[in-house]
Automatic annotation (TrEMBL):
Protein name in the entry: Aldehyde dehydrogenase
GO BP annotations, alphabetical order: acetate biosynthetic process
E.C. code: 1.2.1.3
Repressor found in the keyword field: no
Lineage of source species: Eukaryota, Fungi, Dikarya, Ascomycota, Pezizomycotina
Keyword terms: Oxidoreductase
InterPro entries: Ald_DH/histidinol_DH, Ald_DH_C, Ald_DH_CS_CYS, Ald_DH_CS_GLU, Ald_DH_N, Aldehyde_DH_dom
Amino acid sequence: MSGLSIKLKTPHTGEYEQPTGLFINNEWVKGVDGKTFEVINPADESIICSVHEATEKDVDIAVSAARKAFEGEWRKVTPEQRGKYLTKLADLFEANTDTLAAVESLDNGKALSMAKGDVAACAGCLRYYGGWADKIEGKVIETSHDTFNYTKKEPIGVCGQIIPWNFPLLMWAWKIGPAIAAGNVVVIKTAEQTPLSALVAANLIKEAGFPPGVINIISGFGKIAGAALSSHMDVDKIAFTGSTVVGRQIMKAAAGSNLKKVTLELGGKSPNIVFADADIENAISWVNFGIYFNHGQCCCAGSRVYVQDTIYDEFIKKFKARAEKNAVGDPFHNETFQGPQVSQLQFDRIMSYIEEGKKSGAKIETGGKRVGDKGYFIAPTIFSNVTEDMKIVQEEIFGPVCSVSKFKTKEEAIAIGNNTTYGLAAAVHTSNLNTAIEVSNALRAGTVWVNTYNALHWQLPFGGYKESGIGRELGEAALDNYTHIKTVSIRLGDALFG
Ligand code: ADP
């Protein structure tokens, strides 16, 4: 690996070996153009290292490696063996938790305890899909006595997968798990802000015994490597998690090339609705977790909080006190809940939304400013006195910023909850079962949480209504996005046609 890995240190693990190359065909290689790019530590703005950059030519090479694996060795691998590879990979994730989590915290800025949670969820997800690999089955369908019909679920083929920077490892596992279980091969492009943990995990792919070319991992920029992957004529499917703006571009690229299958998991502006009959202390904890978990960098963040008018004043007072208790700081400190935003660009975007909110007349209850003078830290921010037409209520901020406003009736709560172009998630807090079910049914969102938030689990499908996406990840549902149904119809008997 000479020249394609370096020794780095994290405060949690001490020294470790960081791969920096492109992982193609189970080998570490440099990009054809010899380009590299710098990776920044968001907690102190220092340069961690440089990694090799994939350009169009490298995407071609990775796609051919994947194609060769798909048409060759990988086809002969039994479903049971695919499951074993995934299960082994899950075991290796667990065995390497400390290093994977520390690299994630270093590169992304999330608190180490949260990064460890992500690694555990990666292992859970990979093991779950390992279990699915030999349970993907077709049907026998009877139409008449002289025909025998059956369906088979076949892999789609070479899958391009483009992942974001907010959960670099978890999105990697969400993408690899169902794709591999169903017998596909993949080329994954990580986000340019956070390439490091996926490269560490690439070594585990080799260790788990996957044949060369089945899982390829490249670092690179969206407009270059991402665009090349989504418009590639030999990629059969593209799966993307990221912003709605880029999701549209990916769909256009797929439409303008070979009409590859598309799944998109995009943005959100999720409502978090608190009724007066809710347990207020619990509701506040979940509202706090709903928006500030992962520094607000969650597509399902509960960024629009709606509180029934009779408890509004008490709610604001207590929520403000709760948000001010969140420990913001060094991701490697034990007590830290919220680390830095991922990049200068994200920091600037969030701060400009905060300015925009102030200008439009919203009131800052708490936060609204940077924390410290180094690193991209932003104080947990609550806006009140907002109206539905404000940008901060309509647009995804992707930071630790929420708006709180009042509603009177259940009907009003449903109407404002649905007053968005997005539809990824929503939550309802109430002690009344009828309210919980009625409101959950009426909300146009892929996931509705009741008296909880961010209760994601690899067994539960996740994805968006409206402009939050197409298709579902996780659960059995994700397998549908990675399989083609083939219908085989056999004419029985010897009757002549016509
Ligand atoms: P954000 O705006 O939060 O950075 P993006 O949606 O831009 O999120 O990025 C998510 C992923 O999409 C990253 O891996 C990024 O490199 C990739 N990406 C960005 N632009 C494009 C594009 N035009 N085509 C394909 N992928 C892209």
